[in-house]
Amino acid sequence: MKVSKSTTRSSSSRRLLTIAAPAIVTLLALAACTPGGTSPDAAAEDKSSDSATGVNIVVIGGASDDTFFSSVKRGVDDAALTVEASGGKVTYLALQNYNNLGPDVAQLIKNALGQDPSAILVPDWVPEAEDPAIKEVIAAGIPVIIYNAGGMEAAESVGALTYIGTDEYLAGVAGGEALAEAGVTKNLCVNTVPGAQNLEDRCRGVADGLADSGGTSEQLALPASSFGNQTAVTQAIKAALQQDPSVDGLSTVGGSDSAAALDALDQAGASEKVEYVHFSLDTRTLEAIKAGTALGAIDQQPYAQGFYSVSAAFQYVAYGVELPGKPILTGPLVIDIDNVDKAISGTEEGVR
After folding, report:
1. Which of 293, 289, 291 has the alpha carbon at shortest distance from 343?
2. Which of these, 65, 70, 183, 352, is most buried using a 10 Å CB contact count?
3. Residues paired with 187 in a beta bridge
């Protein structure tokens, strides 16, 4: 199976990340220091400032068995060290599963509002279900940051401070372009949480990225209950590949679906002819990229999403610091054979 190197794709990835660079540099400086210029350790020795004492940032995240959100939470936890050293706290509320995504997130938002929050950070996965609850929070005078899903348009629509994450459509386009450069003409985009706007946008972007070269992409929407069920996802992908031998590209947009897809390719005897791109990073995907059995991965850097979201919220509610750069984009970044070794190092540290 060939692994193509694309100067155009790499340049595109760098260009997308450059949009976010000034805001990220600013935020790192703010997160590393207190207003007096001291380090978090020194801040702990100096106890806490009056404006930071009692700050309670509530973060709503994905299911605890979702490997993507394990990295998000690692970023949340690391940023929380500065919050706690200054006299505040960070509360993390996780979904149990994705079976009833929109209503369940809306309920968590209402639960968060009852915890006397200083700010609430939440992905806007299903706007029609979540937005009324988010607007209720903002109407109560509690600032909100949309992260991971929704984009700046969603943040502006509900009145949130900003959006921190990737542009999911552009991430999809990057994936589609990578597949096109590898010669793919017919792709299957697997979605295990249909209805989640960010995943729908990824599949739509993949289709558009392929269309420029004359390729097509069809979405394979599986029941949300299949999310995390590797056997069910493997069998569904395997069946689809066997039913249509003309499929020469595969993309999975759910963070935990890579192992299932790789197994399906192997069981269907399609590993050599089907180019595979996964959205998100995990050890098996990266090993497959290095071995040449996967073309690449689209990284939205979940650790950065958790870390920057908490840091930005804390600086805003404690000190009135509002970043001029909006949104803060954490991706997309294409991981391929050229940069996979660094990505592997990051996953080993739990920050990729």
Report:
1. 289
2. 352
3. 217, 249
- φ, ψ of residue 346 to 5 degrees: the values are -65, -40
pLDDT exceeds cutoff 60 at 278: yes
Q: Which residues contact 243 (CB under 8 A, 6 or more apart)?
A: none
> Using only C-alpha atoms, what is the Rg of the chain?
20
CA atoms 232, 234, 235, 239: torsion sign: positive
**What pLDDT is recorded for position 260?**
95
Q: What is the pTM of this model?
A: 0.77
Listing DSSP states for 94-107 in one string gives: E-S-STTHHHHHHH
CB burial string 24-44: b at 16+ within 10 A, e below: bebbeebbeebeeeeebeebb
CB 268 within 8 A of CB 238: yes
Give the mean model confidence (pLDDT) for residues 164-190: 95
pLDDT value at 52 more than 90 = no
Considering only CA atoms, which of 158, 166, 156, 163 is closest in space to residue 109?
Answer: 158
Chain Cα centroid distance, residue 202: 11
Using an 8 Å Cβ cutoff, are 156 and 274 in contact?
no
From CA 237, how far away is CA 251, in angstroms rounded? 10
Three-state SS across 22-55?
Answer: HHHHHHHHHHHCCCCCCCHHHHHHCCCCCCCCCC
